[in-house]
Amino acid sequence: MNRRHLIVREHQTLRREPYGLLSSDAHTAFLRHLAALPPNALTPTHDGLRTGSLCGLVSVDGWTLEILPKIYDQADHTPDRGLLVKMLASCFDIPIWHGDNAESGQADLLTAIVRAYLEEASTQMSAGWIKSYVTEEDQLTRPRGQLKIHAQVRRGRAQGHMLHCEFDELTTNNAHNRLVKAALKVAASKIPTGSRHAVMARRLALSLNEVDDSTRSWREPDSLAKHRLTQRYERLLILSSWLLRLLGPNVHRGPERGISLLFDMNRLFQDYVGNALDRAIRRHPLANRLRLTRERPVKGLVSDSAESPRFMLRPDLCVHFDNQMLAILDTKWKRLLPDEQNAGVGQSDLYQLLAYGHTYGCRQLTLIYPDHPCLEQWPRPRFKFAPYEDAAIGLSIETFDIQNSDLSADRILVALSPQIEPAPR
Description:
The chain is an alpha+beta fold and 425 residues long. Among the domains are: 1-70, no CATH class; 132-171, no CATH class; 265-419, Trna Endonuclease, Chain: A, domain 1 (3-Layer(aba) Sandwich), CATH 3.40.1350. The protein has eleven helices and 18 strands. It has helices at residues 24-32, 78-92, 101-106, 109-127, 149-155, 175-188, 196-207, 234-247, 265-283, 347-360, 405-416, and strands at residues 5-9, 13-15, 42-45, 48-51, 54-60, 63-68, 132-140, 146-147, 163-171, 260-264, 290-294, 299-303, 309-313, 317-321, 324-331, 364-370, 382-385, 393-400. Helix 4 packs across helix 8 (234-247).
């Protein structure tokens, strides 16, 4: 492990030297920037720092902390990093997954993002950088656009032969490409000299030579104009903002000290499962009658004296068949522990599911947890909430294999198939 690149898993403690790999200088640097990190990303302990449920990268004062998911929990970090890369590739539609878990997990996460950025930027360069009209003013010998009378009069006879015009120029020097160029400078500093990607970076820099340097924030993609012509830039802009957010110039100044690129694993897992279920529904023979919704419909758990809903519920995923809610699926980014009582299924999670079933009138509820090797021989339990007779609400526990997401999604739909009746003839 590189002394300046530290690797730890979520919900684990990185201990200070001499008991761990965290040096005093690194510990001080991370503590100094805790306020700039998302809540609970890093928590100080008596002997180091403890991570939360956020995975990704933190970079401060030359130190980089890579936080990986805790799925396999082996000495080799490659499988867990590969799973994170695959989830990011799916949820953000970014080609950083290479089809093999080992290959995608060999390089550290920052290197994977840099390579993905360079390859996507090269693709866009081949297709042609986006051009847009930018309003400019200049003194010309021939009229163009709108003549600026006030400026013309102010300059007097000395420059009477020149026309002060305002016109629209179609150019690559626009906000989109300035963001791409700023990210390129960051990416180029993180790749070995003489490598294939270094050559790629030089070609990109030459092609963006006419684009001005950007002084904008890494949040700029949120404010950029989006339309049909810029749609193909979506991947590139996301990767650009990631790099600038983590390593961009001047990111440590002001309120937007972008020192981290962290992802909430609860949200990432929910989106990943949802994407796989969307694909599974499109493959299903009754695809035209099945529908998946995410965090909707929203309903109130209770109503107050004015009949206004209170304590709003937003189920993670709902499967609908025709106009009927078939099942509510709730994703949980937690490791099931088959050797423990109830396998680690939380009682509060059951209360939450029961509230969903009662409020939405849905009789099939499912908790979905990430799969891991210890669960190979573990029988998936199925429960029923009281009352146990015809009005019972069923609860099933499912595991989701991140490496084989399509198979897992198909299996979940198959488990629901007894409730899916074909249309009567």
